[in-house]
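Example record for the data management plan.
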Amino acid sequence: MEEKINYPLGKTIKRMLKNITATNKKIYLFFVIFTIAAVVYPFFSVALPKVLINELSFGDKASFENILIIVFGYFLLTAIFGYVKSYVLNYSSPMLTLLRIDYIRDMTDKMVSFDYKYAEDAGFGEENERAFRACNSNNNGVEGVYHKLFETPAIFITTIVFVVFVGMLNIWILVGLVINLLVTLLINKGVHQYTYKNKKTLAHSERKNYYYYRTTHDFGFGKDIRVYNFKNRILDNYNKEIEGYVAIHKKIKNKEYALGFIALFTLLISDILTYGILIYKTANGMSIADFSMYIAAVASLSLMLKTLIQDLTTIYVEGQYVHDFYNFMDTDYGEKGGNIKAIADDTLEIEFKDVSFKYPKTEKYIFKNLNFKINKGEKLAIVGINGAGKTTLVKLMTGLFDATEGDILINGVSIKEFDKKSLYSMFSVVFQEVNIIAYTISENIACSSLDVDNERVWEALEKVGL
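Corresponding structural encoding:
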């Protein structure tokens, strides 16, 4: 059964604008300046041919001074408005990037706090892949939509003015352009919906391809691949995954290519109407100056309509992933926990009371009715064979997983009553698999980038012989 898309674009944009209002209202000021400059700028190139040809039509009586004034005025005005447009756009761009970085901060904060079972669930990653990618790039997702919301109103206003201007000449030219616009917009929407319906298949294929890419590029696997002669097996499987990935994209692109013929047909009709009507009017008395002006106006309108289509499509397509991001952020994945803050200036007493546990989506219990207590200040070593549940015990103790049955108490308080971040701050766990983060050594040791105590860092290094 195909997935139905329920996507409130208006609410998504409203929420994004609300974020600008709360974060940086200056963006609105730059938006107004940019819009004014961007709306005025295209009309100079439409007016120039008519004014210049009118002057040249006087023949020997044409004023060289007037021609210079027209040309110089054109270059001066386009330079001023073009500079303002480009400067404001470039100046505002980092502000929009900062908005995306704030989204990344919020998403990261959620991901390091939600229930650990989601971090180990590949299906969860595939389901939310589009939400995670909403903040990955300057041109897509959150920032891509912000850029288009910043630029598109100017294009929309300019298009409306050109529509009125061309429509006053002949309504059929306008009809042809609008039909082409609507058909192209519907086609782009259809292609996006088709792509979005295949999002889980794409995400699953991308995850498998990434696994093989990581395996084939990690020298750590080199010994095992050679000793056990895995080379051909890995490459064969990798090639199959690549072929599957290409097949999915080919299926989507074939759909886009087939629908593109409809847009091409409507474009052909639009061009026939435009140039046919203008040639007819010129043959029946329209001046060359007016012909040149309308040709420039129609060409500008056609370009504006295409740009408007692309921008609206981008807002619609990328807005879908922003909506997925908001859904991810609004869904409770256990990142909040309770309201009790971390226990300060005291050691911990940990008690397991009738705890039973099985991993999510499994039926086998790792522990059943487990009872024990670790008293304050007590040192305890837990030994056992591989798979006995030692690591699982630590994950339960530190709140990474919730007990399936029973309760875990810290200083007599249920572990569920603690705020998740506060709970994590009370433990320092070193698992058998350690990943070095791309920070300085001191930041890796301190597990923080703020107010690192270098004396404690050196003390820790000396204690472990490093």
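Summary line stored alongside the record: The beta strands are 350-358, 365-374, 405-410, 413-414.
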